[in-house]
Amino acid sequence: MADGMLEVRVVSPDRVVFEGDASAVVAPAWDGHVGILRGHAPMLTLIGAGEMNIGRPGGGSDSFYVVGGVLKVERDRVTLLTEYAGNEPPEQITGDAIVFADDVEG
User: Fold this and answer.
1) Which of 86, 6, 82 is closest to 47 using CA atoms?
2) Could you tell me which of 65, 59, 83 has the C-alpha nearest to residue 26?
3) Looking at residue 3, what is its pLDDT?
4) What is the block-wise mean pLDDT of the chain (106 residues), using blocks of 10 residues?
5) Residues 35-39: contacts with CB within 8 Å, 24+ apart?
6) pLDDT given for residue 103 in this prediction
7) Contact predicate 65/47, CB 8 Å
8) pLDDT at residue 19, rounded to an integer
């Protein structure tokens, strides 16, 4: 990991989708998008469905669609384990892949 960067890893059931340094991450949490920069507090959240964006060092970005899963942030490391990740939205999304606000007690 380069100084001042996040170390990001995105894993789907069939492959490692992304692994590398990033300046920022924006991901679709179950209750809205979450933005992550270096120094972010430790966090664990459920992922909904939508576009994930990874800001690359020196400019540019990578983006792909994700559906369901868990995102963990700890010590400038971002790990996303997802049910689906691809360049296009999935043709079908299973109902149990997404957590809705009404599904969470609180």
Assistant:
1) 82
2) 65
3) 75
4) 86 94 95 95 94 94 93 97 88 56 54
5) 36/6, 36/73, 36/78, 37/6, 38/4, 38/5, 38/6, 38/76, 39/76
6) 56
7) no
8) 96
- CB neighbour class for 36 (10 Å; exposed up to 12, middle 13-18, buried from 19): buried
Tell me how far apart the alpha carbons of residues 106 and 104 are, in angstroms, rounded to a whole number: 6
Global confidence as pTM: 0.82
Tell which residue, 4, 3, 23, 13, has the closest CA to residue 84: 13
Q: Where are the domains of the chain?
A: 6-103
What is the reported pLDDT for 30? 85
Let me know if domain 6-103 sits in CATH 2.60.120.10. Answer: no
